[in-house]
Amino acid sequence: MTFSRRSFLAGSSALALSSAPIIGRAQGSDKIIFASILDLSGGLDIYGTAMADATSLAIDDINEAGGLLGREVELKMYDAQSTIQFYTQYATQAAAGDRAATVHGGITSASREAIRPTLARFKTLYFYNTQYEGGVCDFNNFCTGSTPAQTVAKVVPYAMNKWGKKAYIIAADYNYGQIIAQWVDRFVKENGGETLEIEFFPLDVTNFGPTINKIQQAKPDLVFSGLVGGAHVSFYRQYAAAGMNAEIPIASTTFGIGNEHKLISAEEGNGLLAAYSYFEGVQNPENEAFLARMDAKFGDDRATMNELTVRSYEGAMLWAEAVKLAGSIEHDEVTAALKSGLTYNGPSGPITIDPQTNHAIQNVVLGELQDQEFNIVASYEAEPPADTQLVCDLNANPTLSTFYFENGLAAAGIE
Amino acid sequence: MDLVAAIGLQLAYVIANLALISLGLAIIFGMMRVINLAHGEFLMLGGYTVVVATNAGVNIWVAMLLLAPLVVGIIGVIVERLLIRWLYGRMVDTLLATWGLSLLLVGLVTSIFGASTATTVSPPLGVLRFGNYSASGYELFLILITIVLFFAVWLTLRFTKLGLLARGTMQNAEMASSLGVSTSRIYMITFGLGAAVSGLAGGLLAPMTGVLPTIGATYIAKAFITVISGGSAILAGTTAGSILLGGLNGIFSFIAGSTFGEIALLIAAILLLRLMPRGITGRFFRKSL
Predict the structure, then answer these.
(1) Where are the strands (E) in A155-289, listed by range?
(2) Tally of domains in chain B
(3) Which pLDDT score, from 0 to 100, does residue A68 have?
(4) Residue B289 lies in a domain
(5) How close A241 gets to chain B, by Cα (Å)?
(6) Contact at CB, A230 and B110, closer than 8 angstroms
(7) What CATH number was assigned to the domain covering residues A152-276?
């Protein structure tokens, strides 16, 4: 092998990279490392940047209250750039390099599935703070976001009572959309309704004209949307431009978590229904204090808070409460504390971990969009993750690390 | 009957949409052989021009039809002077340079406007009704303006002195130069015009799709596939490519859903380029513009 300048540079930079974690470890002994992996650039940054802001506020709040176990918490923020391969890389870096006490992050289900096995292997406590399709059953992964049995099961009967029994389902064409469409279909049938059509869209589709014609042809009473990402916001504009929003109303499992209601005009969005565990209008002292803190830290141009952002804050705070209760940052002690019935009272209300599934028992609110604000029209307290409970029992099998809904609901034994 | 009218309009719109996003690229790639990977970002900048201008109180028609092409055209001229003109004839280098430019523009727009931007401009012109079916009147307007735009580009290339000089320069730059044509200026104007057409397209689509710093990525692949399938003749090629690929996309989207619509478009492009490597106008309408 010839020794060229190029191979020397490559070799020496690899050396520099590999030596960095050693230094980090030596310094890190007095600080607790909290790693966050989110998409702060690329197409998914419409979700990721606000989640990162809320996470950093949580770490500020923890440190201002004196840190944890007398130690300061240091936030390591990784930008996965809407690229799955960076998720895997940074998860390994956070677990093996930074020796993080916990990793919070992942936005799409695809990104969660990329890092979940890695973090389970390293036994680095992992929090996924995003609403998703349910079905993760992992001893190491706490899923704090809402799942379909908590939200979709509420919005479907509400919308059907209001508008009628015939539904048309449209969703994004990847694992979240495919599985959420099956959930919506299931809840529609449970409530005595009928699904006329289920249609999926690749994430970069911006022209929804043919679908709008098909909806007009099928004449449903309502449309359920599980569309995802910036390009899909086009649907709501084109639907309104064809005059359809006045004729066939929409309920959604995703509209609002990217603050879509601020991106389209009031007339285009009015009347849309959505269910999450949080809207900014939730009334409680914790929420008032939280919003005031966000205003103070990020000023007037802070993003509107939604479930994703608030849960990123609450997920971090819940972990901190568990560390305090356990008196340790070790994996098994913190896990035991989280599963002990520990409740954190956050802006969205009380959150408790269900020990059977490692998912959160949480409040759910139904909102109707009016003039770019969600007005809360119904609220439900302490909803259990009933979907994941159908398939997952970590009490019986405490070492499980699987995703049951990978191949859809039928494959998981749910009719 | 109503359904036929509604689907017919929708098909025409899918085709016009493809033609509209491809024309600026066709001018720059077809005439100058410059692979402009920042084409999607030119469209995106057109969209942002409309959103910023309407938020500042400018009439939406002025913003779409005048400001968007003007602003992006000027950006195009600046880009050509600073970046592209050093790279003529070096196709791979322009590819890399414009890719870098695309990343830079996405980064700049994200840092100025943030990751998502409120586009509260709704499509103007109300609703068209066909019995039980309805469509946006703005879609019909977009179809018409695409036809007008193609006609205007054809008139410019066919009947104006600038068009003659441009076509001469593209055919044989050295000969044009020795006959006293400033080829450098012609390149600059052509690139600027291509950028202006892209800006106009992006501006016109903004009310339908909204604007995002990363929206260019959803256009760039389709625009390239259309232009390359079309072949060397800019207008005839882009028109033929749009009709074939957009038509298939629209029909399959309607029958089997958007996923199959996209698949049909890609398979058609692959088969077409396998059978006609020089595109549609490499075999048919060879003498056309």
Answers:
(1) 166-172, 194-201, 222-226, 250-252, 273-276
(2) 1
(3) 92
(4) no
(5) 5
(6) no
(7) 3.40.50.2300
In total, the C-beta contacts within 8 angstroms joining chain A to chain B are: 135
- Does A28 score more than 60 pLDDT? no
Q: Is residue B220 part of a domain?
A: no
Instruction: Give the domain extent around B12.
Output: 2-211
Distance from CA of A202 to the nearest CA of B (A): 6
CB of A207 within 8 A of CB of A24?
no
pLDDT digits (tens, 9 = 90+) for B52-92: 998 888 888 999 999 999 999 999 999 999 988 888 878 88
- Please give, rounded to a whole number of angstroms, the shortest distance from the CA of B69 to a CA of chain A: 22
Residue B286 within a domain: no
Helix (H, G, I), strand (E, B) or coil at A196: strand
Closest residue to B10, CB basis, from A213, A262, A266: A213
Segment B83-130, tens digit of pLDDT: 888 888 788 888 899 999 999 999 899 888 877 766 667 777 778 777
With residues binned 3-state (H G I as helix, E B as strand, rest as coil), the percentages for chain A, rounded to 5, are: 45, 20, 35
Binary contact (B135, A237; C-beta < 8 A): no
What is the enclosing helix (H) or strand (E) of B46? helix B39-55
Contact B258 A205 (CB under 8 A): yes
The domain locations on chain A are 12-146+306-361+387-412, 152-276
- Give the separation between CA A85 and CA A115, rounded to whole angstroms: 10
Closest chain B residue by Cα to residue A197: B257
Q: Which residues contact B182 (CB under 8 A, 6 or more apart)?
A: none
Q: Within the 130-189 window of chain B, which residues sit less than 8 Å (CB to CB) from chain A?
A: 132-136, 138-139
Which chain B residues are Cβ-neighbours of A201 within 8 angstroms? 257-259
Categorize the per-residue pLDDT at A243 as very low, low, confident or very high, splitting at 50, 70 and 90.
confident
**Whether A263 and B210 lie within 8 Å, measured CB to CB:** yes
Given 3.30.950.10, 3.90.1720.10, 3.100.10.10, 3.40.50.2300, which CATH number is that of A12-146+306-361+387-412? 3.40.50.2300
Distance CA(B45)–CA(B40), nearest Å, equals: 9
pTM assigned to the model: 0.83
B194 within a domain of the structure (yes/no): yes
